[in-house]
Amino acid sequence: MIPPVAPRLKQEFELFGDSREDFYFWLRDDKRADQKVLAHLKAENAYTEQFEEEIFAEMKGRIKEDDTSVPVRDGPYFYYEKELEGKQYKVHCRRKIPGGEGPGSIDEIMDDAQEEEVLLDENEKAASHKFYIVGDVQVSPDHTRLAYTEDTVGDEIFSIYVVDIASKQLLGPVLKGAVEDIKWIDNESIAYVTQDDIHRPYKAWYHKIGNEQSEDVCLYHEEDETCFLDMGSSESKEYTFVHSGTKTTSFVLYLENKSPVKELKYLTPRVEGVDTSASHRGEHFFITKRTDDTYNSELYVCPVNDVSSTTLVLPHRPSVKLEEVQAARDHLVVYERENALQSITVFKLPPAGEPITSLDQGVRIKFPEAAYALSPKEFQFNSPILRYQYSSLSTPFSVYDYDMETGKSMLKKRQEVLGGFQPEKYVTLRKWATAQDGTQVPISMVYRKDLAKLDGSDPLLLYGYGSYEVCIDPDFRMNRLSLIDRGVTFAIAHIRGGGELGRKWYEDGKLTKKMNTFEDFIFCGEYLIANKFCAKDKLCIQGRSAGGLLIGAALTMRPDLYRCAVAEVPFVDVLTTMLDSSIPLTTAEWEEWGDPRKKDDYLYMKSYSPVDNVLPREYPDILVTGGLHDSRVAYWEPAKFVAKLRENKTDKNLLLFKCDFGAGHSSMSGRFDKLKDLALSYTFILRSLGLATRSTSSL
């Protein structure tokens, strides 16, 4: 089958005396209705579909299809989610607790004899949609009403539903144009955030259940186009927080839920370069604050009735990044990151009502592996139980309950992996590569000890991201076994631009230091080859979204280094996108990439923008994906990148493009449908490596 060739229609752009020719600008169609554009995308899909194989069935076979989450004690109920055999979506349920409301214990088990009450069956709602995602599910404080958000297109514009749990009746109109999060103010009202025409969350609203949306009260309107709003609740449920911020500045407003006057007050002021977030317990707010000098953040406490009177309780440490704080009735939980590893420390608080002037030594929870991933789970304010999730590249997701009074920990559930998975067969490592400027860059990796030779002959897949201070932690993904069980080592390059080593790590990989991100990734690849973790001709690379930009830049900078590359929904037309403020989210992105209206930024961004750096040369096998309704990375970016590669490549290697017509930035919505895109990526990698599709997991 002959690969599709996009027609060349010249479009010229000139700025600062620099001229750029874009022969594929015509692929942009904001309405997604141009028949010539759609025909080209369909031709690309038809060409790609011939390479899809049976790895999907193998991946699906590892999933325990009928599964239940660890129940969460909330008031007089245990709440949980379950997945049913053959079904794509979750079912949200609850059962009564025989003993009623209470703090619970780490060894308690839900009484299955109690009648199960189905709150929301996503499968029923999804039946009439090609795409369906539930963003948030929240039960009212008195446990009689359910509010949830859904997206049926993939553009991340959510609708809000509120239903009576007993009768299943819809209470009032469906609210439109929202982000995914909702918060109950009291039993009769919720707060939510809406988006403007370019998908910027910009207004916070108060909604009385049953009222028309036009009657809702605007709590806050963020007029600064570089600022985004998001919303949270205090762990105590006494306050609703609204955060407004950019990549470098944020401030917090708060609403006292029980107050009859529904208005927001400033908890922290808006100060350029200062970033804050908040928690609440009793008579105090805890405020996490980052400045240019205290770049890894420090923790303050202030009285609720005097928010300007702050006391420092956890000072800044240059090597320790303060990531998250959770306040409970008797304890403070602090999530931190040091040396690219996460940690959890629990502090005992004085009795409620007493002043807080300092924190005790705290107790740090210990973890066994060289590289791992942690994430907070459901948090109950009045309970001494801390719930968190632990995993590593070789340890499946594990939910633990930790008693903050006794220090006792209990495993509540470990993800079950079907197909003969034996964790002892796998080895997890943390290595450090040296970049050109001497910076040590961490690499997490996993391989199967009975298959990896470690003699310079092994294939390896290197994954990266490196933007927005996002941490790509070494967690468990069962689908990677389709590669690892065939002898492919999997590695993550924790490159600059991410947040794995703190705020400075991020700042050293953004704006006019963005090249560090791409060069770190290249040096990590060279390190893995030089140290015999990978064969010279078997290095594969993969990244998604901003990580797709990473892959695009790596391909244009060092195409000779790679056997194959997978760029999923890649941000590859950096300059053209950042010059067009009509494209969603563009102006807010200038703090991350630079403002191309400024000459120095323009030239620097052009130097790495993948679409602007495709040259006539040989490239490795490449797979690119996109989503027609993607609101973050428009489909035409990967489409243009592929068209330009087809025009310029001088080799006969594979170049595939898959544009999903029924998805947005996060791929398809169903749990099995999502596997299809990943199955395509992994089949592509295995074909490029010349590896058999027969798994060795049971050998």
Automatic annotation (TrEMBL):
Task: Give the record's keywords alphabetically.
Answer: Hydrolase, Protease, Serine protease
Q: What is the lineage of its organism?
A: Eukaryota, Viridiplantae, Streptophyta, Embryophyta, Tracheophyta
**One BP annotation, GO:** proteolysis
Q: Which residues form the Peptidase S9A N-terminal domain?
A: 4-413
Specify the enzyme's EC class, one word: hydrolase
* Record's function text: Serine peptidase whose precise substrate specificity remains unclear. Does not cleave peptides after a arginine or lysine residue. Regulates trans-Golgi network morphology and sorting by regulating the membrane binding of the AP-1 complex. May play a role in the regulation of synaptic vesicle exocytosis.
Membrane spanning stretches: none
- Name it: Prolyl endopeptidase
Q: What is its EC number?
A: 3.4.21.-
Hey, which family's this protein in? Answer: Belongs to the peptidase S9A family.
**UniProt domain Peptidase S9 prolyl oligopeptidase catalytic: residue ranges:** 475-690
- Source organism per entry reads Selaginella moellendorffii (Spikemoss)
Q: Which reaction does it catalyse?
A: Hydrolysis of Pro-|-Xaa >> Ala-|-Xaa in oligopeptides
Give a GO molecular function annotation for the protein.
serine-type endopeptidase activity
Q: Which Gene3D superfamilies match?
A: alpha/beta hydrolase, Prolyl oligopeptidase, N-terminal domain
